[in-house]
Q: What sequence folds into this?
């Protein structure tokens, strides 16, 4: 069903003001007098890239790749052995003989000696952030279990950071996993690191934090402090705050009381994002969709594009900046094929791996406050009426809503809001998005299908399968429901939600195929999908989610020449060894931006 949709889908109509995108799609070899005519052709449908390929095919290709196992993700030609590239776009995808006879004296020819080539991966939901040296004032300590497997190591790395940090300034860490540390770090544990620094650690979910007493005292958080709406303070058996903060409303109350640190300079910021994007490129990611975009980040992405650095970026602007986006008159699609506005990110609900999302049946755990199994998670801060109004406003403004929701009660509210918006302002192929949709039984999936919703489902069971224990086995078969969604014909977009899980597409694909945690336990085996489907989700599916499937996501004539070369063939690999396949090189627009041999 998804394959049929892939064949029939039409190209998005460019929005007013998106001249850089449409003009960039036109072959520069054509006289400018012909371009207005072709701009009109672009607006007519998904056959434009094919026309474009035909127009430039007469030119000598800049690059030819041959003797490769090319997995195109194009149903019209699923495999090939060779392709040519001219001015950043695929021109001919065919056999070695057909492609090689088009080479000219200036053509670069690469023989990949049977290596596997896929379209560049498109991570449809992650959180790019500038990366700074750990010992710098802006640096944070990486607490991933691969580096920090236990509490002793946690204390050691944090003490090292504190020793390099002037007293009174933040010591920050990220990506700790409570299930690997015998629970969340408490204020008492973190006080053993320092009582002269405020300490703030971010859980791998991005929805839970741990702080020391310095932070709680500065914010005047005591046992009498009520939980904020939409958040909660962790408490010990005596009711005293234990230093654990659940959801952003709780974080905001304490973070505001901490010391202010000067922002990095503009050049430091851009260089920090450049380091982050180098990480993505080394894993074969050629496009990303920033799921918490800001105006400053958007400017940094534009600067990297000017410098011919980084990846292609679609920005899902945080809803806090909706006024700015509307005032500027921007709609989804504003920009070009390098940096563009995707839509508006709305957070309505909480975390799956943080075990805070709002569910209809209680968690399979004892509520420490009541001593009973009566914990349903934290309800969203917004009412249904407030969510309905916000979604309708975004929709009326020509913007694509992308809404974070994990628990089934959260998802039901989002679907109600989508139905309301489309009833008041009908739009064919609206492509509203739900980010994660983690606890999603079949009735909710069928509603999503009827509304044409795109689902950016998690693929992180390898890292976070153990977090699913608290939901109980009865729910595992409809959590992260990739197979059920695919069977219904719902388009699913691949993503890592980095840094929540590693931005490693091969690991993500393995997780989708096996549903196995790092410890080897399978969660919801009925939701396994074939390797080919997982690859499609991480390429074409993600492009579809951002209305760019006529531009990228497949190795097909007229699409941008973004592709990745692998050390192995994932379709022939033993499923639990897919993550061992390395990215040998990453090409963006036909040019190498990562080569393992040069590292």
A:
């Amino acid at each position: 069903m998804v394959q049929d949709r892939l064949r029939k889908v039409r190209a998005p109509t460019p929005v007013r003001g998106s001249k850089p995108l449409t003009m960039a799609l036109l072959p520069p070899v054509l006289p400018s007098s012909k371009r207005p005519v072709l701009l009109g052709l672009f607006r007519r449908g998904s056959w434009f890239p094919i026309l474009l390929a035909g127009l430039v095919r007469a030119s000598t290709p800049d690059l030819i790749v041959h003797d490769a196992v090319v997995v195109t993700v194009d149903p019209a030609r699923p495999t090939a052995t060779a392709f040519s590239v001219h001015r950043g776009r695929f021109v001919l995808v065919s056999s070695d003989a057909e492609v090689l006879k088009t080479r000219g004296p200036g053509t670069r020819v690469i023989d990949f000696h049977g290596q596997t080539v896929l379209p560049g991966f498109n991570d449809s939901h992650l959180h790019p952030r500038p990366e700074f040296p750990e010992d710098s004032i802006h640096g944070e300590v990486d607490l991933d279990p691969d580096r920090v497997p236990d509490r002793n190591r946690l204390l050691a790395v944090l003490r090292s950071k504190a020793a390099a940090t002037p007293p009174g300034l933040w010591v920050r860490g990220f990506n700790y996993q409570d299930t690997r540390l015998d629970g969340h770090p408490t204020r008492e544990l973190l006080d053993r690191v320092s009582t002269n620094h405020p300490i703030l650690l971010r859980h791998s979910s991005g929805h839970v934090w741990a702080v020391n007493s310095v932070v709680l005292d500065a914010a005047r958080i005591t046992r009498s402090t009520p939980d904020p709406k939409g958040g909660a303070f962790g408490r010990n058996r005596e009711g005293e705050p234990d230093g654990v903060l659940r959801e952003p409303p709780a974080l905001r109350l304490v973070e505001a009381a901490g010391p202010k640190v000067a922002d990095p300079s503009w050049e430091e910021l851009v260089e920090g994002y450049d380091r982050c994007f180098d990480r993505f490129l080394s894993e074969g990611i050629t496009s990303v969709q920033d799921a918490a975009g800001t105006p400053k980040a958007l400017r940094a992405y534009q600067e990297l594009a000017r410098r011919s650095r980084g990846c292609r970026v679609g920005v899902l602007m945080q809803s806090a900046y909706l006024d700015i986006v509307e005032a500027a008159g921007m709609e989804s699609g504003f920009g070009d094929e390098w940096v563009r506005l995707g839509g508006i990110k709305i957070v309505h609900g909480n975390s799956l791996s943080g075990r805070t999302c709002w569910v209809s049946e209680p968690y399979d755990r004892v509520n420490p406050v009541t001593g009973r199994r009566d914990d349903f998670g934290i309800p969203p801060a917004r009412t249904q009426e407030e969510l309905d109004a916000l979604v309708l406003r975004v929709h009326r403004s020509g913007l694509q809503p992308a809404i974070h929701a994990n628990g089934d009660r959260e998802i039901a509210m989002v679907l109600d809001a989508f139905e309301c918006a489309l009833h008041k302002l009908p739009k064919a192929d609206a492509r509203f998005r739900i980010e994660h949709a983690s606890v999603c039984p079949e009735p909710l999936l069928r509603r999503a299908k009827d509304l044409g919703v795109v689902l950016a489902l998690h693929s992180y069971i390898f890292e976070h399968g153990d977090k699913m224990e608290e939901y109980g086995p009865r729910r595992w078969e409809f959590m992260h429901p990739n197979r059920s969604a695919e069977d219904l014909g719902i388009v699913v977009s691949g993503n890592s939600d980095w840094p929540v899980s590693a931005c490693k597409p091969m690991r993500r694909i393995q997780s989708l195929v096996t549903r196995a945690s790092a410890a080897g336990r399978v969660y919801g085996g009925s939701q396994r999908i074939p390797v080919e489907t997982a690859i499609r989700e991480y390429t074409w599916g993600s492009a579809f989610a951002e209305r760019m499937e006529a531009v990228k996501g497949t190795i097909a004539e007229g699409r941008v020449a973004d592709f990745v070369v692998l050390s192995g063939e994932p379709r022939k690999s033993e499923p639990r060894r897919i993550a061992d396949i390395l990215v040998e090189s990453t090409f963006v627009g036909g040019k190498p931006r990562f080569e393992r041999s040069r590292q």
Q: What stands out?
A: The longest strand covers residues 285-293. Confidence is low (pLDDT under 50) at residues 1-45.
